[in-house]
Amino acid sequence: MRKHVLSGLFAIAFASGAFAQTTFPQNGVHDQRMGLYAFTNATIVVDPKTTLQNATLLVRDGRIEAIGSDVKLPTGVVATDLKGKRIYPALVELDSDYGMPEVKRQPGGGRGNPQLESNKKGAYYWNQAVQPENDASLLFTASSTKADELRKLGYGAALTHPHDGIIRGTGTLVTLADDRENMVVLKPNATMHYSFNRGTSNQTYPNSMMGAVALIRQALYDADWYKRGGSNQQENLSLAALNRNQNLPVIFDVTDKLGVLRADKIGDEFSKQYIIRSGGDDYQRIDEIKATGATLIVPVNFPQPYDVEDPWDADNVSVAELKHWEMAPMNAGKLAAANIPFAITTAGLRNKTEFWANLRKAIENGLTEEQALAALTTVPARLINAGDLVGTLKKGSLANFIITSGNLFSPDNVIYENWIRGKQYIVGQQVVQDPRGVWNLTVGSQPPMKLTINGKSAEKPEFQLMADTTKLSPKVAVNGDFVTIQVQMDKKKPGTTRLTGYRTGNTIKGDGETPDGKTVSWTATRTGDAPDTPASTTGTSGTATAGMSGTTARGQLATTLPASATAVVYPFVGMGNAKKPQAETMLIRNATVWTNEKDGILQNADVLVTNGKIAQVGKGLTAPAGARIIDGTGKHLTNGIIDEHSHIALLSVNEGSQSSTAEVRMADVVNSEDVNIYRQLAGGVTTSQLLHGSANAIGGQSAIVKLKWGEAPDAMLIKGADGFIKFALGENVKQSNWGDAARVRFPQTRMGVEQVYMDHFMRAKEYAKGWDTYNKLSAKDKAKATAPRRDIELDALAEILAKKRFITCHSYVQSEINMLMKVADSLGFKVNTFTHILEGYKLADKMAKHGAGGSSFADWWAYKMEVHDAIPYNAALMKSQGVTVSINSDDAEMARRLNQEAAKAVEYGGVNEEDAWKMVTLNPAKLLHLDSHMGSVKVGKDADLVVWNANPLSIYARPDYTIIDGAVYFSLKDEDARREAMQAERARLIQKNLAAKASGAPTVRPTFRRTRMWHCEDIEGVMAEGEEK
Amino acid sequence: MKRLLIPIFSLVTLVGYGQNPAPAKPQDHVIALMGGTAHLGNGQVIQNAIVLFDKGVITNVVDGTLVKLNLANGTEVIDVSGKHIYPGLISPASTVGLEEIEAVRSTVDKQEVGVLNPNVRALIAYNTDSEIIPTIRNNGVLLTQAMPQGGAISGSSSVMMTDGWNWEDAVLKKDDGLWLNWPGYYASDFDLENFTRVVKKNDKRDEAISALRATFGDAKAYAAVANPSPMNLRLESMKGLFTGAQNLYVRADYAKDIVEAVQWAKAMSVAKVVIVGGEESHRVASFLKENNVPVILGALHRLPNREDEAVDLPYRLPGILQKAGVLVGLSYADEWWRTRNLAFQAGTAAGFGITDREEALKMITANNAKIMGIDGMVGTLEKGKHATLFVSAGDALDMKTNVVEHVFIQGRKVNLDDRHKRLYRMYKEKFTK
After folding, report:
1. Are the beta carbons of A1007 and B200 separated by less than 8 Å?
2. Cβ(A14)–Cβ(A47) below 8 Å
3. Nearest C-alpha of chain A: how many angstroms from B308?
4. Quick one: A196 and A333 in the same domain?
5. B contacts of A865 (beta carbons < 8 Å)
6. Same domain, A192 and A173
7. A328 and A456 share a domain?
8. Residue A1026 reports pLDDT greater than 50
9. Is B195 within 8 Å of chain A by CB?
């Protein structure tokens, strides 16, 4: 109790200078001071490029009044001699929740009790995860303990914002002083903050990554509409806030490199360059990240080494995780080398005290000190347009600076003081007198002993005590002028002698107590320097004069590492490519070629590939110079398999929250790092339609990709491909198997499903009409009119009506299949493809008449009531009626055996082999409108080819080569070499982890993480707890 | 009232297209399959074979080019030249017959509540009228081991024929073994934050193993008492484990779990242990061999367990074990309704590492029979064994050619109709009008 009172007494602050708290009443006598301070003889790092020697810093009223070597000290100044010490600008943190209310998730939501509307009552946006009206300056309360954590690290200011929701509101720049908020807040509306994480909102929408993207886009379009006249129709405080703050810098919080790319693309759509707070793995996709043009905010929270002592357990750690452990500290250096601008944040650290050690690790791994300082001061200040206030030491800017014992980045540096707005915070103990040296210690009447004090810095002394030739183990503490020593004087006699004394010059005197309670007096006299004490006590002499560079060699560590340790593989997975595959000129000779054309199956034929296309098909072709020759003798050459229905390489599958989510795009969540891409290449698949799931009647827009293992998501997408969208019918849509609680969302019956379609298409029709009318207006009339509100959901539906987007519909039962065809007929469009379509055989004639294709499972049934009539003869029957039939996977495992699934059409229903083969190649190409350049071995078409060791329909067949656009993406021959290289890399990393553990680093136990395998019925956030289909 | 109506409607749909064909009549005359390629299931092949069976039992299997048989009067001769004869495929560790439609709870009878259910018997729930059964039979799967799931000790399995009026008719071997879910070294957790499954060390494992140790200890002691009183159904049902009359089937996938489970079972005086699942069994192949422990592998058509595993490791697993001298059986561990693809598991094994297809075939015939202790009756085409066999138009291990033309179970000629063929016919007719 007493202690608290005492510290409270000290904590009562005086107000320095003129920025007194004039608007507040004062209890007691006013204590207003001059606020005039000078720091002389210091090495002053003004900014990362400028360092002044023997300079003076003059501070008045919390601002820098003068800086330089010829500063005249005014009268009344409190001057401090900083000879041998340095001054740096205080650091600036950009990702902080300092002073923000705690983010708490409210109970509720979930599968049993869906919350369809926002719980935030008032004139706000419809979605609870969009709260641009949140203003950090209104929420901010200063907190000494939290500020202290950052002050100790050298920070003087932080940008803080509430870390909750997708559009989170504005951020506020505050100092880290423990003053009244009025003195702490520097820039109330400094920034706007976005993320992909809905945070504490329990509202059902969005429950997927692509839903989060769609929500941001729609909110931004809505804000635009509001600005253009929407505000005449309604008051919306959220949209008003978005518009009010539209010119603020936007900081987008993402978790990984793909998030960086995704966030930037949204910015591009709205002509805004976002600043992106990354996950620290940017080096894994550095070219694409550079191309975004974004400035990043990168963390230094590096993974801990893994405990890999047990080789079996160690297998739970992937090569990618091990590599990231090694490379994460290289991230900042690699960004700098690529000239990608970035700031550094302390956010994400397990413990803030790890900050300096980790930053130094980044410097050991390629970051220069100058770059590091810029990333901690000038870059963050510039990003939030606060360069005039913080980040550098120049006349007029805030007196936010730190005083250090030496080079800020050196391991033995001590930050003594952190001045914030002209207010001093002592953060590191400054040693009055260096205790190091050799001292003669005499205790009572004992013979003199030799006390050696050395160590790298005065602040971290080490002690040795020799009594004649016996080495004793003293515990010594130096606190200002006071020195206390505890030591067991006689090794044979237990008991500690405790001494305390004070230093005057080279003498320490005092008394103490022996183990038996007798008082003794003692003295120590300094006789000289300790042998290994560095000559300089502060480490500042003769270092950096021009800029910051030079004290730590850049890339020093890298030179001692094997090449693989600094090399990135694409994608960043154990089986990634050292180099991205390139198109080659190649000739496959003497193979059995399944052309899928009227030539049928050619025996002993050659296929020439140039520029990624099929150049020639025939016999006895000549290989151009330098062409790769593949001997096809005894082999079968076919097109690559096209999977019409896949959910691999996706970060999420279902935005199952609403009956229609036509606005979500799977292209936003393509995961180029999914090892299933490689596994499917090994099964001969070259193209997949990545579909939204089947949780709702109108799902999202598909992404059609080539499985270019190593490329980033956008490079996998097929350029110019028609847009498709997933629809779904039946039990998933009406939530039949979601438990008894899920009986809220419309529709719950097949009757309702039809109405969902009619309702949405009616709205889309009116929407399209509205735009049409507006677009036809003259420029003059347009200026007077308000453009319709852009609705990205209705955009997609209007595209269907305009025959510019095409439906792939998850379907099982004939009644509803018939229904959707009738709905489409009534609106004048066609259903492009029914997928699954397990009862397609029952109305194959109607499908053929309507013009719909069928993409089916070969032999699935019995997993639920609506597939009870599914039969493996489905494909054969549909084909017999003229339906374009494909066989699809909907399953990451089955996709790599689609050739075998096609063979089941031979087994069930006797389809001939050529036609069966088309069901996984040419027919899906047709269904995806890609057959003009894919799906058959024809001159001019894409060279997406597979060389098989046997008839591709045989269970014994496996690909020798899988080729996409003329580049070899899988080669069985090279598979062993690839695995050996991976194993060698793994072994090297394991050894390094073992060494890290042996040297005492805390380790993490290997756990094994597997990305979920998606099926179309998986509903993220709803059904994710089960692995069932 | 509304509630009551629903099941009635469901029933109507279930029977909408007629029933399964009636079970076959007992064999009442000698049958000779002439001229086919006989895959004996023990690794041997006889081209141009004659397979002769009477009263449900194989009476002769000979090479027709070497031996001329004098066929008795009344022998039904079936010319199968150009076709292939196989012993009935055996599908171990299966829930066929125990569940019908996954999403309809009332049709699912595979898992009892509770942790220790050794006394629960799968054959009781085996539904001979299941519409799944004919579909698997028609791809050559003629025997299935009905297996209970759930808890720590799930209950006992029985080997069933895929033909019969009721479970009493259909059973081939009653209560062949008990099923134990070994408490795993790792437990899996789903991380909702990033939608990944995280496998962590299982903290509750030691506790679970001690509970099992106590139960097995008590069961062993109980088994030594001539007339125990009071009678304990649970312990009573475990007696066979200590005499070798019953297998102990242990589900374990991780290498450490496999080793530990086997060591533990030996310490508990369990006579016969079979590892089921065995996804990492290749790492402990020599241990399994030394301890004479067979493995029934789970799905081969699965993804590798780990990102860095070879893409085809699951496919190559049977070959790796076989080369190490481990007795390997294959099961169909994906959904039970896909069991008609069992033969293709063996086909995959043959495409990836087993050069002799007959060796792969053994893994779904003779090896499974041996593991389940029914090799005296079934598993190979040999004199004295049940005439449980089928004829396929081509290689039965390849889907392209697996077209089953004749099925005999204990010599009974099985009607090859099934729900799928009925619907196929129905709509083919519709469209030919």
Report:
1. yes
2. no
3. 6
4. yes
5. 10, 13, 101, 103-104
6. yes
7. no
8. no
9. yes
- Tens-digit pLDDT profile for residues B127-173: 999 999 999 999 999 999 999 999 999 999 999 999 999 999 999 99
The reply to whether B307 touches chain A by the CB within 8 Å rule is yes
The domain that holds A214 is classified in CATH as 3.20.20.140
At B349-397, the pLDDT tens digits run 999 999 899 999 999 999 999 999 999 999 999 999 999 999 999 999 9
Instruction: Say what the pLDDT of residue A791 is.
Output: 98
In whole angstroms, give the CA distance from residue A194 to residue B401. Answer: 57
Q: What is the pLDDT of residue A730?
A: 93
Local structure of A564: helix, strand or coil: helix
Domain count, chain A: 3
Could you list the residue range(s) of the whole structural domain that residue A620 is in?
581-640+935-973
Asked if residue A333 and residue A211 are part of one domain, the reply reads yes
State the pLDDT at residue A545: 34
Angle at A318 between CA A315 and CA A321, to 5 degrees: 135
Task: Give A900→chain B minimum CA distance, Å.
Answer: 7
Cis peptide before A299 (omega within 30 of 0): no
Q: Which residue of B has its CA nearest to A870?
A: B420
Residues A503 and A390 in one domain: no
| Confidence band for A1029, pLDDT divided at 50, 70 and 90 | very low
How far away is chain B from the Cα of A307, in angstroms, using its nearest Cα? 13
- Whole-prediction pTM: 0.90
- Contact with chain B for residue A938, Cβ under 8 A: no
Going along chain B from its start, the domains and CATH numbers come out as: 15-88+380-433 (2.30.40.10), 89-378 (3.20.20.140)
A contact residues 798-837, partner B, Cβ 8 Å cutoff: none
- What pLDDT shows up at residue A1017? 55
User: For B308-403, where are the E strands, in sequence order?
Assistant: 328-330, 389-392
In this structure, the answer to whether residues A310 and A443 fall within a common structural domain is: no
Q: Does residue A988 sit within a domain?
A: no
The answer to whether residues A621 and A175 touch, using CB atoms and an 8 Å cutoff, is no
Distance of alpha carbon A730 from alpha carbon A643, whole angstroms = 23
Buried b (16+ CB within 10 A) or exposed e, A105-137: eeeebebeebbeebebeeebbbbbbbbbbbbbb
Reported as a single tens digit per residue, the pLDDT across A400-436 is 999 999 999 999 899 999 999 999 999 887 666 788 8
